[in-house]
Amino acid sequence: MAWIDFLDLVQSIMDGVMFGATYSLIGIGFTLIFGVMHKINLSYAAASVGAAYLSLLIVSVAPTPIVYLIAALCGGVLGAVIYWVCFKFLPLNQSLATLMSTVGMLLVLEESIVHATAGMPQNYPAAFADVVFNVGPFVLRGDLLFVFLLGCAVMVALKYMLEKTKLGLATRAVAQQPIAAQICGMSVDKTNASTFIIAGFLGGTAGAMTGAAIGVLSPLITLPLTVKGLVVTVIGGLGSIPGAILAGLIVGGAESLFQFVRGVSERDIYVMLMLFVFLVFRPNGLFSVPGGRD
Amino acid sequence: MDFYIGLLQVIGVHTLLGLSAWCILHTGQVSLAQGGFFAIGAYVAGMLTAMAGWPLGLALLTAALTASLIAIAIGFPALRVKGLMLVVATTAFAEIVRLVFFNLKWQVQTSNGLIGPDGGLGFGGIRYFPANAWNGLEILALIWSLVATVMMALWLLDRSRIGTLWRAVGEDEIAAQSAGINLTAAKVSAFGIGGAIAGLAGGIFSHNTTHIEHGNFTILLATFAITYPIIGGLKSLLGTLVAVVFIQGFLIEGLRFLGDWRSLLFGAMILAILLIRPTGLISAPLSLQRLKPTKYELEKGQTSGARHA
To answer: Domain-by-domain residue ranges, chain A?
Structure first.
């Protein structure tokens, strides 16, 4: 391989890893909800994209950072709505019922987006799009770097929230042993709802980051984002937040690598095969949570 | 009239798809791979009749067998995991299948010109039915006789030893294992039979539409496949049929007059049904009893937060 090809290869992996921060955030959202409720929320990625769409409502009057902030807040609101509609009133021992209700929600969200925008892709504002850093032979795109750093900042904030605040303590307690948490006076219902809201904040940020990195938002990105988010969750290990972060970056980098080597139409085949390799050799993911969950 | 024949054909094909998911759901597993098996059946059967000139019956049988073998092969690694992990693993499998067909270019020269899968453009010219002068009613009769056969076979299976094993595994894996049931055998056999039914459905689908492409086989199709048995209720086979008629006949075709709003209402209706009847349309207790916790639930302390995957 020529030196120049090698540089291109490393460059594309770097870009992929930076974009992978969005996958990490989506993966964390799935993992958080799974950790607390032992349920999958399939509408999560759709809600994240939906939150980014909602933030487009103010894009003409507000500066870009405010648009991102609004996206995160809308994500939180949508998270609360999803908890209320899809989980609160369903019997939780019927795991298929909540799976199906979130599928229904996914369809509602996706169709609402199509309905509101007539299916046309919408431009999304990027931050630092014209900034380029040269690091040795490599180029760091300002917008991707911003997305990566924003993702890291949100993850640090989440870690602080989970470990240093009362809400985080309650979240971890309910995740470990809901009945004992209830005996100690924590409201399981409120903790579940707040987990959905926190996951929603992350999702809204991820939706905004995806829009900022790609430059457009389209209803077509909801399903791939859902699939990638689930892949990240499994590779990282269910319920493991550090696992989701690392797996998101790995999936982002691998996706970019395969795209460079095999082209855009084949890249996802190899990403999915990578998942199978993980399922066979490390079925519990990179960081499995102790205690033998299913 | 043609419209109704077409609708009934769609309902038939989707019933088969729903029944394939029913087999796997019966063992307590959620598989989103059904769309993948469906796609394999569609492409294999289409290639055999259009490119190799096989008769339809043989092509459908081969399609079902191929899908079944692939289902068994994929079942062994995939069934090492369960719950969410299996959902993701089967999703990944279905996406791999779709993308392989998206990239597959293999055309041969026949008397009708170049025929075969053409990558992203899809696979057209599967003209077995028009070439042999089948009319809509005859195709309809073929589809529904297959649906009836499969339903009958599954009904008998459900009452046989295999059905009992599947249900035991579906109800409680640990209890089933302690009773000496081979979990892997039960799950993989359900995967194989479900894969065969999905392959059969795919084979009919490709001949009925004459043109297939990777976009027909997205995760959405697999989601529909598991939606039918879940909405219909897992207790009975008829539930799946009722759910297909309800979703394809009423929600998709019957509400067409609503125009754009129809697809919006679709998801909302599914949500509403689940809120009213969380165990499916056809399922045992018909009252609003479930709003009050039963004595059993109270004793087990199942509140809204109790962990129960």
So the answer is: 3-281
